[in-house]
Amino acid sequence: MSELKESRLKIQQLDKEMAGLFEQxxxxxxxxxxxxxxNGLPILDAEQExxxxxxxxxxxxxxxxxxxxxxxxxxxxxxxxxxxxxxMEGMKVxxxxxxxxxxxLAALKLxxxxxxxxxxxxxxxxxxxxxxxxDTAILPIENSYAGDVGRVMDLTFGGSLYINRMVELDVAQxxxxxxxxSLGSIKKVVSHPQALAQCAAxxxxxxxxxxxxxxxxxxxxxxxxxxxxxVAAIASEETAHLYGxxxxxxxxxxxxxxxxxxxxxxxxxxxxxxxxxxxxxxxxFTVHNEAGALAKILNIIGSHxxxxxSLHSRPLTGMIWKHYFFAELEGNAxxxxxxxxxxxLNTVCDKLKIxxxxxxxxx
Length: 363
Description:
Low-confidence stretches: none
Radius of gyration: 25 Å
Strand content: 25-35%
């Protein structure tokens, strides 16, 4: 047998083995996708891809093949993501509002392959995920200018969903109106309370009447249907295109650093299933009605080496002068230190719940 034929036969055998390994790998890709859908995680995980490449390079014995092997791994992972995208077409993502809402834009960027399902308010979107009508829900939790979204925080305290991802979306607020309108013709602006707060200085400058709406995109839809040149909406530029409105003025928000954080909710808790759950976690808790109760909890958190990046106090529904606390901590809740922290906090809190772990992602 010639050398050429012998080498070709060896490659043929190796290709056969690789085909079997490829099938096995793609079966595991399916399992990973099922996990991501349950936990509201996106297909792309750039940090994990970097780890895969670094770990596999170490398996090479011939360093001259390294650059080719890196290209091979990149191609395999691209195929894996393409396969996951095809399978993810059945995934359903809840958001509040109508197409063009900022939550809708965030959902599209995070889950471009999924089916988007609109709900009229935060509670309806949250409850739909609890009931299994959708796989995940994307809701705003905080704006860098207007502050926290209290209703969503309240849902986390009383509900059963977990936050497995937190995404930051730069928000640009624009003044939208029907064709033929002008700044001089506007007398009233409609939008979500957060958007109105973000643009308060601009609105005051023009002495316009404010009307609150449940959602920025819903407000834009209303203005389009009303067809009144005296009424404008504050919403995204994408919303203007969707509803045939003109952008009378762009970027009317007061702060140049206008970012909204969206929480990605699902029924499954990523923290309980992996040690690499994330570098932040969120606790909601109530304290005993006694002097120094909150200070004691803060001291326990500090003694375990966890930095608290934010702490919010919210009134408990139906219980006058009673509050719960929403705290975000930096670190891994599933580490040994994190588990010990939770054990100690359970002894001093009336109620304590970890509502998820996450990594921050900017869109």
